[in-house]
Amino acid sequence: MAKLKVGVxxxxxxxxxxxxxxxxxxxxxxxxxxxxxxxxxxxxxxxRAEAKKIPTKVxxxxxxxxxxxxxxxxxxxxxxxxxxxICLAGFMRLLTEGFVGRWRDRLxxxxxxxxxxxxxxxxxxxxxxxxxxxxxxxxHFVRAAVDDGPIIAQAVVPVHQDDDADSLAARILxxxxxxxxxxxxxxxxxRVRVTDDLVTVRDPQAPMGTxxxxxxx
Length: 217
Ligand code: GAR
Prior knowledge:
The protein is α/β, with parallel strands linked by helices. It has helices at 15-24, 44-51, 67-80, 97-102, 123-130, 165-188; strands at residues 4-10, 31-38, 56-58, 85-88, 107-111, 134-141, 151-158, 192-195, 198-201. The strands form 2 sheets. A 7-stranded mixed β-sheet has the order 3-2-1-4-5-6-7, with helices on both faces. Strands 8-9 form a two-stranded antiparallel ribbon. Strand 1, helix 1 and strand 2 form a beta-alpha-beta unit.
């Protein structure tokens, strides 16, 4: 079976990209990374792709007069690479309605909160300021509004009383690295459907158990 061709868009560290690269190394994984695109020339994630001989391209948004010009360049590169699914992985540029519409239900994002709570930046600081007892991450199809769109999968982690933003981010990140490859696999297996802006997954594994924080004594 032909593998789903994935384009990964990054701006920085690329640890989620790494999780996808690692997943793709398994021969039975139904997706492959056709292109890694970065808007930042020295993004550390580019090295991760180069180390595995995955094609990379830098498209610096600053070189374009407007968002449309930047996105047209990305569109060309993605199309030339035969990309069928775009994964935003720490890609820190807002996308226009035009681009998002062109890739409707073929463009996904990972965000380090339980959406729709805590959209945007400085997520972990705001979770701690609010005193939420749980946080986590969400993979969703992208719509024009920031961190908005049909939810495909989420992972939940407890917030610890002595957490700071870094410790909470690190706890969530380990789960991001599990959830993103899972979602890409489900999409590649054609098990994810969007109907009326709601996602259904064919034959999902229902999670077990409940978490209460603080834990019952
Ligand atoms: C990840 O935590 C991802 O969820 C977040 O940026 C980080 C990128 O890390 N994305 C967003 O906040 C998008 N709204 P990475 O470069 O190591 O994958």
